[in-house]
Structures are given as C-alpha cells and as structure tokens.
Write a structure and sequence with these properties.
By secondary structure, this protein is an all-beta fold. It has one helix and 17 strands.
Length: 164
C-alpha cells in the first residue's frame, strides 16, 4: 500500500470515526467571567485504561508539502489530544484499523483554531505542523506500561495539499 494522499478539510463529520475535532464553533455552552468569556465545555472524549491525564508541551519541526508518510502510531492505553498553541494549520493523518494493522490513511488540514483528540487505539501520523513554531499542548495518558505501537509502511505515502 502506498500512493498519494490529498488533504481534505478537517470537519467533525469526516473525523468522527477517529476522534474529536476541538474548536470553538457554534455558540458557547455558557458565558462565564461576567459574560466576557464563552465556555465550550467538555469537547473531547478522554479515555484512559489506567493512569491519569497529563498535559505536555511538544515543539515539532515543520513538515512542508509534500509530506512523506512512512509511519503511523497508536496508543492502546489512552486517547491523545493535540491543541496548537499558534493560529496555523497543521496536517492530521489517521487510518482505520484493519485486523491490528492500519488501513488506507486519510489526510486532513486542521484550520487555525482547530485541534484534535484521537480516540484510544486510533492509528495516526506524527505531529506535522506546516509553520513555525510547531508548539502544541498535548493531553494524554501518564502512567506505567507501554502505550505506543508503531507501523512502518513498506512504501511511503506522499501527502499533497488539497486546500490550495
């Protein structure tokens, strides 16, 4: 399996089998701070087998188009949320599970202001910011034991920008 993947816009509907799209779309759930702040409440389904939720900071190098996808990974013990700390788009890659191996990947472009939460066990690409700085807050499982599986494709995929 290899080939070219063309990015598509990141929407809640298209991404639903893989996780949550995190953004502040629509009306806030409630206003707080004297009506000066809209709260978009509980936007991600955090899911951990054991351990606790932790917040880490990742500073990734940019990956300009075309992006080479040679590996995906998954975390069987917990979900993983990526929240960009800049207003820049980034590439999001996911793949369905097919009998313990990743199926054909899909590539999305997260718009400025969007983040993602990968469901526990979802195959996904590595962090791929398109602009510097590649700074993200990451909410994931902190606990004992292994929580990473990697799969390297025999032939890499090439990801091209479909949002030109």
């Amino acid at each position: 399996m290899s080939g070219t993947l063309t990015t598509e816009p990141l929407t809640a509907e298209a991404f639903a089998p893989f996780g949550d799209v995190l953004d502040a779309s629509g009306d806030p759930d409630k206003l707080i701070n004297g009506g000066m702040c809209g709260r978009y409440h509980d936007r991600a389904a955090l899911d951990f087998v054991e351990g606790t939720a932790g917040i880490s900071l990742f500073n990734a190098q940019i990956r300009p188009f075309p992006v080479t996808l040679d590996m995906v990974e998954r975390h069987p013990e917990g979900s993983q949320a990526f929240l960009p700390m800049t207003q820049h788009p980034f590439v999001v890659v996911v793949a369905p599970d097919e009998n313990g191996k990743p199926g054909k990947p899909r590539a999305f472009i997260a718009a400025p202001g969007q983040g993602v939460n990968y469901f526990r066990g979802t195959w996904h690409g590595v962090l791929s910011p398109l602009h510097e700085p590649g700074l993200f807050a990451v909410v994931d499982r902190i606990g004992e034991g292994p929580n990473l599986e990697e799969h390297f494709f025999e032939k890499p995929f090439t990801i091209v920008n479909g949002n030109k």
